[in-house]
Amino acid sequence: MGAFIRWIQRAMMSKEARCKEEERCLELVRLMLDDQATKEDSEYVLKHIDGCYRCYDNYDLEKTIRKAVKSKTKNLEVSNEIVEEIKSKVPI
Ligand SMILES: [Zn+2]
Fold this sequence. Notes:
Blueprint: H1 2-16, H2 22-33, H3 39-51, H4 53-89
The structure holds zinc ion.
């Protein structure tokens, strides 16, 4: 339990701590998630977020946004299919 509390405290502290690389890192994170970053950039990001809670948070958020957008698009495709199916079954 003590170790867990220490972990929480450390996580909270590092979250408050500023990151000098945050802006640059976020830019690279976006490129990486859009498959536009170079191998070096991706490696840098992955290495950095491994030790930087703040940038990991940004990375996680960007990833979640993209996932949400993707799943929304998917749902749209599914409903289009359903619409087509209904259209083909219902004579107009
Ligand atoms: Zn950072």
